[in-house]
Amino acid sequence: MAVIRDVMPAFELLQPNSVADAQKLLEQHGPDAWILAGGLDSFDWLKDRIKKPKVVIELSGIEELKGVRATGDGIEIGAMTTLTEVVTNPVIKQKYGLLAQSAELVASPQIRNQGTIGGNVSQDARCWYYRAGWPCYRAGGNICYADTPVGRNREHAILHADRCVAVNPSDSAPALIALDAKFVIRTSKGERLVDAEDYFIGPEIDITRLTSLQPGELLTAIRIPSTWAGAKFYFEKVMDRNVWDFALLNVASAMVVADGKIVRIRIAVNGAAARPLRLKEVEDAVRGQAPNAATGEMAGKLAVQGAVPLQFNAYKIPLMRNLVKRAISGVREATWAS
Amino acid sequence: MSNREGEPKAPERQYGAHHKLIGKNYETADLYAKVTGKAKFAEDFRAEGMLFCKLLLSPMPHARVTRIDASKALAMPGVKAILTADDLPAPADSIDDNGKVVKASPWNERGLTMEPVYPGEPILAVAAVDELTAAEAIEKIHIEFHPLPFVLDPLESLRPGGPNPRTEGNIWSSPEHHGPPQVTALKWTEADFAEAKEDRLPMGEAPNTWTFGDIDAGFKNAALVLDETFITPDTSHQTLETRSALAYWQNGKVFVHTGTQSTQQTVPQIAEWLNIDASKVVLISEYTGGGFGSKVTAGVSLVIPALLSRKANAPVMMRVSREEETFIGRARPNFIGRMKVGFSREGRITAIDMFTICNNGPYEEQGDGGTSGYIVSLLYQPLAMRWRGVTVLTNTPPRGPQSSPGGMQGITIIEPIISKAARKLGIDQVAIRRINCPEGKAELGAGEAGKREHAASAFLKEALNRGAEQFKWHERVANRPKRIGSKVRGVGVSLSCFVGGSTGFDGLLLIKPDGRIVFQSGIGNLGTESVIDVHRVGAEILGVPWEKCDVVWGNTAKNLPFTCITGGSQTTHAMTRAAHATAMEARKRLQEIAAKTLGGKPEDYDVANERVFRKGGGTGMTLAQAAQRAIQLGGIYDGHEANGEVNAVTKASVAALAGQGLVAAARDNYGGDGNTFSYVASFAEVEVDVETGVYHLTDFLAYADVGTVIHPRSLGGQLLGRSILGIGHAIGQKWVYDPHYGALLSRRFYQNKPPTILDVPVNMQWAALDIPDPETPVGARGVGEPPVGGGCASVLNALSDALGDDVFRRAPVNADTILTSLEAGRPMQHPLLAYI
Amino acid sequence: MIAGGVAVSSASYLFRASTVQGQTSAASVAERLITINVNGQQRRVDVLKSETLAWTLRYKLGLTGTKLGCDRAECGSCTVLIDDVPHYSCSVLTHTVRGKKVLTIEGLANADGTLHPVQQGIIEEQGFQCAFCMPGFIMSAVAFLKTNPNPTRSELAHGLSGNLCRCQDYDKILTALMRGAEIMRGANRV
Q1: What is the ipTM of this complex?
Q2: What is the pTM of this model?
Q3: Do C96 and A55 touch (CB under 8 A)?
């Protein structure tokens, strides 16, 4: 069978109006079904004709999945809320600005107008071998093409590699982890809640997927508790181009400082491993310390302990070190006299 | 980021002080159609019964197709035809500009193949009622390959025992007696490769070389000698419009809708590819979505819909996808270059020993290697120089000239060396370039028998000085500190140039009986606006307001003259000359008509304000009346006879217009002393964050010496647009290949990184000297390519100013390079590894 | 016999059902007749489930001003407005825009031919070069300027950052679109 990487294959399109209907359709069609949120991840697979689902269940007609609403303690964001809505929502901007900052750096304006928060956290890896359809571990095969002496792995993992060295590409994921978000997943048996950091999995759990979402399950909402509302936030995304680029690395942190000391902190990094990493050891080490350069440097060094560079991604070690340092101790503004 | 972010745009400079139309801004005739979405590009056309074709591409870098079973595909009711290499016509001989027959080469690219020599090469095409059917048909084709040895990296191929990309060898060489180029094999020795261990380019046997002066003496007398190795990236042209094409046959003629840079000149090219007579080809191309050298005369892939439509007896639309364009859409050859440069204490370059390996891809020989030496010899005026080069074939997508082919690479290799020398010698960066800058009839190349070529003119020193002033160079350099917190600033300057003209082409215009002038334009419309701009010259000479002028372009059935290719930055130069000659011819005929009609001698009459009239006042006639009279007079006046000097193509167009008014055609015979080049002085400022390796371009200026300014806004578009094309090579554009499988990994824009609007400053600056070139009547030279090298090199120079000399030794430079080098205290980039 | 530019009947371009079963998607490849609102008009058109808005506009509604530059949501040449919001139409399924308002480049100028201020600004400043990216940039700008009528060049650049120009005319594009914004403010267009 010859290969062509163009022209989306035909599929049946189902457009449910409610989560319940979506659930029923998912059960009915099982592995034949593909869930379509904003489509920006899906269409790459479909247009390359690498994936050819018989049935596409698209969720844009389900109003209950959209919008930001107050809960008893914090907010709940429907999974189909667009990234632009997340960026411009007044409550998110005012209290959970970390999420707005991260969402604003995703891709490009048109993508943010259509891409959803649920899609952004559930998106698939961007390793270029995997995305080109090569039969690697992640694709169900028995080999990794990137992790070889000559494989091109500049954008790949420096931590927790386990046969697969792809990284998670989401920008909002580390922010949601830092905000201690909970992901609401609807299953045929009801609803389950998953801590943000547990939503993402590494190859040791399942090498073929980046999230713990099982077939037949639907991510319906993301809940952010008020715990970190108004905290001191830091987000930085390092990429090659200034727009429409995936992170080489990004860092997100929420910190509460009182009397010159870090009272509590949550910090996460993405682009270093197959899942966004919550840096618990760093949090433990800096709690009670002043958020100064010395603490930052110590935190950075701690964060990269155990990092294993591949042939082309050694730069991620000083980069991760410095990003963690900056999350703790900040960046000095440079204004040049001219 | 930039200090200029909040600033409004600086007011535009005025040009064309002594002209009515030349040097003035105006609305080009194509702009309304573009702005309303009415402008039709190739894939916008539709035809009754149109079929769609999709391509089957080679998954392997080098293979032989051993079996194709398309029976299941052909059995699909919507599938109408399949095309393979067996359906291609035999390669046609061509005629060069001197009328000599050039025999067809067996090694050239043909559009389809049974021996793919690069991954992504089209093997066959399927035409079906719709794209979905065509795609499904491709998947039903059973195809078997026998893999052949492949090589991606020129250096690997040059190793003793290294693989060859084609069965016959790995280099192009010209046989002893100037016959057609042949593919032969060249291998270097183990001893040659000892240099690679020191991260320096091995320099084995070079089939191509020239020398002038005594380089040994030059190095001996130098105060400083630097020897540096540098790699420039492969960058795909990535025109935003791919080379989609629609073709159909009517009454024995093939009609092709496709993008091209050169409307008239594409017809003989299509005829050669299809091995038919040029009179059987009609090209429709009013709008082309970019070329940059990749569509000089469209692309050979257009034979696919042309032949499929003949086979299927229906129009065929070939929509080329973005990924396919990455394979078949041409790319700039990467260079592995090494230069030894000697400097006097004052920074004057005493000698250059330059060695370039040019990565040719698998097909037609690219001239980038030789051009790089040629350009360097002009731009830096070394007292002695040797250039050696080898152009190596590889199993990677075909290369094509990309804006400043060879010039960009040569400048990118030498400029960092000059910056390093300036630092070591304690000389200001602008000063060291001033001292080496070409002036006037500057010499270049080695020439023959000791007689070197020279430039027609050069005012680059003036551009450099004015540019330094406008950029506030000395203030920026003086106002250190360079570092605040984790941010470091750097400034860089680069010289830049490229060829900027050619001669000997034709113009053709018609003065209609209503007094309107119609300029027939054979130039392509790829966004440079020269298709229309050059004709302002004719309108000004004839004294006709622009509102009374029309330009016909974009359809070769509309009687176009013999025109230069719209490439090599020659168009503004060549076609303003042709426009000038044609307008002068029209003037002459108007004077003759007036004399014949009103009495006296032709020289008694003048042409202005839409009239031809007795000098000093008195009787005259309107142009409209003159045109009517021309029809009555017939002969040379209304196109029934043609000016004997013009090309056969022009003659045929003249004949087709005969009787419609005053027809004037002329050939540019103006001559001129020296080769035409245009020059740019480029200035850049960067801000680097040394903790993340991320940097931003915060300011940029291109100061140009391009002769007389014809249309300021389109000139500015070329100066800044092509500067950014060069900048892209510095800030991130490249190919990434997996060397084990020979497969392209950087398929998508987010993987091969063309510059976005946020990757350049929001306020970029440009200016032009507007000093006329003395060797051409209108004074205008061409522009597209001269800014490119300077765009790339000025950014690299700004980076080394910010970070020092031990950070990078190849382009592009990104966060990974900067961080690892700063961390290690020495350059950490792999110096010789390909496609990373 | 070219039907250039005329709205073509969907009959000419009906994607026919593949009668050959296999490992490819065996879904019924039938079109459905739907109504979509494009440039203020209700248009009835046969659309495959898997068909993108860019394709429907270009091949079924004769609106070729919206371009296909990459078909992968990366270049912005296909940008249209859906309920006043810029989208990459190559990555929108036509079946999801029923009940929404689609605006393309062809819908910007007035019925009498007078141009939208953004278009006028481009004319005045000779914006763009090959213009393949132009319709996409214009649509992004029109939407952006509605909510940000008086931007700095930098703010405008951010609003346009999803549009790629390979001629790299960014500087002149910004000048032209800033002029368009100026005209828009002066004309008080809604």
Answers
A1: 0.97
A2: 0.96
A3: no
